[in-house]
Write a structure and sequence with these properties.
Helix 2 runs parallel beside helix 3, helix 5 crosses helix 8 and helix 8 packs parallel to helix 9. The N terminus is likely disordered. It contains nine helices and six strands. The protein is an alpha/beta fold and 208 residues long.
Length: 208
Amino acid sequence: MRSSEGRRGHLAGHSARAHGALKSKPRIGRAPGQALAHLRATGFKSPTPFEVRIAGEGAQRERLQAMIDPAGLDNVFLTGFCDTPREFLAGLHLYLQPSRREGLCIAVHEAMQAGLPTLVTAVGEMPYSVVDGLMGRVAPPCDSEELAKALKWFLRAPYKLARMGEVARSRVLDRFGQAHFAATGAEIFAQLPVRRHPMLPAIASPAA
């Protein structure tokens, strides 16, 4: 986890990989704001300053901004389309992926590879990649209250984030890195049926 003087101490973010993601996945962008609003409503005060950056662009941007402003969430920023995800991730201390549905979710793996702990929802492959409490937290989908609790857990223990990020990077490289990919491919290839006898050379029939 990185800190910087003169700025908010800790940064959390969500990055939608595809242009127009705020159009296709509006609830992903909405979820962090709902969780923060819930924390504020319950009187929670973070022991460390932080801000949330949501990367992505699309038709839902104005709608999301219209939800952020009345709630007084002055630490939530819609940063727009990002074509340099590595740079975006390098400026964060925690990555959020509060999806309603997912497949493999490469974005989470990219965040883990960047050495970030992650806060994800239990959909798709994510709860199998992120071990709850070890390299991040896993919350149920579509539950802003539980998402808020998980975020509160991180904010109360920022000193844990750096180590969790190291574990996350190690896990994703072990499971999805080049060495594992090569070993898995070799194992699959070894199980393929192999012709046990060499093919005999073809003999042309004598001309009539």
